[in-house]
């Protein structure tokens, strides 16, 4: 068998999380500035998987983004031979560590969340069929509570027994990702706090050792929780807390617009109280792969995995409320256009779910696009980072079009390019278009400056003309 000086780490799943994690692990250095790990990123042989593998092997991060560190450190890792990507599952054979970063969707049946674990189970089964007895498996995928003990461990046990390996030797840990795609994408992995746990002390210790080599734990210490169920719950409560708080502000957003106040001004006043610092600002809803599904995992898993018949009214209500928020932007724009979108030319600026990323999964813009189209509007879309909008199947303009043909322009994402845009200059003499700012891209001072130049600008969460 080939001898590896560096520890071999396989990262399963080269999506938004796995690709970035693979780059971070392959750039972890020991005190002599030597790479700790040889990293192999593994994805499926599907067209998407192969595209991601090819992009990474050619030194290109597979997703549009605004963090130059990703491509820089990817190229460095390829040059140092500390990273490669592959679709060959036999790479798991001699891995000392496997990090699971595949996706796990949360479908709804008759408005109720229902676990769908087949793809995830298959991926764990693949690992179990190849790894050796000494390998540590770390689950980073966001999973329903109970998954490590009720799903992952039994699958690994069964595989080990079939292969004549000792199931008592299985090392399994859980450490969820807090990666934040955007300008600080790379740093949000290595310079950020992490939570971890293991199915036993040996697993937890091995996970701690691994994370300490990748993450700047001197500045961002790790938090150990006493069971995998606790750390799985920690991820879900963390994201549900954010979702519920965003949803809560949705009703105040509608209120502020109706009664004619500026909710940003109100919230800034409240934030002076140290206890209320993290109160959320108005917007047009949430999007992306995490907040739109994570609050549904615990309601479903408590019934299906943990056999507890508990209700989660806040979590469910938050998701329902937020799914309506993009329609609030549509209603506001329709009103500003005099009651109809029929034959109106609309420009949507920003189709990703979040600023400075190219991820379009569950973006609020999707619902806005579909509703305006249904109501007879003609739509163009711009996004500085997205070339093709997969969910809607259209090409996206990367250069801001001339504004003169549009009746209405909705800014749905606070991308850097929009924040820096001088609306008066861009609109030039064509100031008839109604502009709706969905995420306070422009503050009160800027708003007044543009309005004084004749720009018809309104903002979500702020009464007309304020
Ligand atoms: N995107 C984020 O910002 C973010 C942040 C924190 C946590 N998370 C969580 O991390 C996990 C991954 O999210 P993502 O956004 O990277 O998902 P993604 O859909 O972008 O990537 C998942 C990848 O896994 C691959 N995959 C699926 N099954 C596989 C298998 N059997 N073998 C090898 N590869 C396989 C897919 O082909 C895909 O490339 C999710 O649980 C998500 O909730 C995401």
Radius of gyration, whole Å: 24 Å
Largest sheet, in brief, is: 8 strands, mixed
Uncertain parts: none
What portion of the residues fall into strands of 2 or more residues? 5-15%
State the distance separating the first and last CA atoms: 71 Å
How many separate domains?
Answer: 2
What's the arrangement of secondary structure elements?
Blueprint: E1 7-12, H1 16-26, E2 37-42, H2 47-57, H3 68-79, E3 83-86, E4 97-100, E5 108-109, E6 112-113, H4 118-130, E7 136-139, H5 147-162, E8 171-174, H6 187-190, E9 194-198, H7 201-214, E10 222-224, H8 228-259, H9 263-270, H10 294-304, H11 313-336, E11 345-349, H12 364-374, E12 378-382, E13 388-389, E14 394-395, E15 408-411, H13 416-419, H14 423-427, E16 434-437, H15 444-452, E17 456-459
Parallel strand pairs: 1-2, 1-4, 2-3, 4-7, 7-8, 9-10, 11-12, 11-15, 15-16, 16-17
Antiparallel strand pairs: 5-6, 8-9, 13-14
List keywords for this structure.
alpha/beta, about 40% helix, binds nicotinamide-adenine-dinucleotide, 2 domains, about 475 residues, globular, Rossmann fold
